[in-house]
Amino acid sequence: MKLYLYDHCPYCVRTRMIVGLKNLTVEEITLLNDDESTPISLIGKKMVPILIKEDGSAMGESLDIVRYLDENYGDKPCLDEYVRPQIEAWCTEVGGYYYRLLHPRCVQIGLNEFATTNAIAYFVNKKSERIGDFAENIEQSAQYIERLEQDLVKLERLMKSENTINDELSYEDILVFPMLRNLTCVKGLHFPTSVKTYIEQMAKATKIPLFYQHQI
């Protein structure tokens, strides 16, 4: 199997999580961010992740891929599908602003999807329509970090353990960990102790590297 992805994409991290948790053999292929032809040829639109199954067919949509791999590989599914409304609300709240911290940084930390100037320009042009000028967002980091640290305290109160968000591996982890993992690129962001431990434990379990060494 093959998995087309971007390293910075939280939806792609979701699929990488189940691959790592179930120790699956999947070839990961990072597309340049301005490569429109490859995803369009596979699923009809520019979107990742894309899983190429063993039969050669292509599947998009991150949670569909997670469910497919969890249900069809290994002895049994490893994820509880229940997601608490409080966790959904937390993801929605943080998802409304955290890209203002992430997008301006991810083009600066040497990721393969931004290996060319054209790929960077493509991303900056697209995402600036959503969050505004990248440099201005970097300058305003302090206010977003302050807000995020308050939301991370709220998350810590919702966590059931330092290994999983709920009592066992679940779709709560699939939703939350990718957001937290990507935030490890933000210099000056302090994670509550339990949240930091969770990030590092889940990174180890899923074999997904963090961005601490690339902080901006």
Topology:
Layout: E1 2-5, H1 10-21, E2 27-30, H2 37-43, E3 50-52, E4 58-59, H3 62-72, H4 85-95, H5 99-106, H6 117-131, H7 134-139, H8 141-158, H9 171-183, H10 193-206
Parallel strand pairs: 1-2
Antiparallel strand pairs: 1-3, 3-4
Helix pairs in contact: 1-3, 1-9, 4-8, 4-9
Principal-axes shape call: globular
As laid out across the biggest beta sheet, the strand order is: 2-1-3-4
The unreliable regions are none
Mean pLDDT metric: 97
What distance separates the N and C termini?
A: 34 Å
Number of helices: 10
In angstroms, what is the radius of gyration? 17 Å
Measured by DSSP, the beta-strand proportion falls in 5-15%
Percent range of helical residues: 40-55%
Main sheet properties: 4 strands, mixed
Class by SSE composition:
alpha+beta
* H-E string: EHEHEEHHHHHHHH
By DSSP, the count of extended strands is 4
Description:
It is a single chain. The protein has helices spanning 10-21, 37-43, 62-72, 85-95, 99-106, 117-131, 134-139, 141-158, 171-183, 193-206; strands at 2-5, 27-30, 50-52, 58-59. The chain is an alpha+beta fold and 216 residues long. It has a four-stranded mixed sheet with strand order 2-1-3-4. Helix 1 (10-21) links the parallel strand 1 (2-5) and strand 2 (27-30). Helix 1 packs across helix 9 (171-183) and helix 4 packs antiparallel against helix 8. The longest helix is centred in the C-terminal third of the chain and has 18 residues, at 141-158. The N and C termini lie far apart (34 Å). The mean pLDDT is 97.
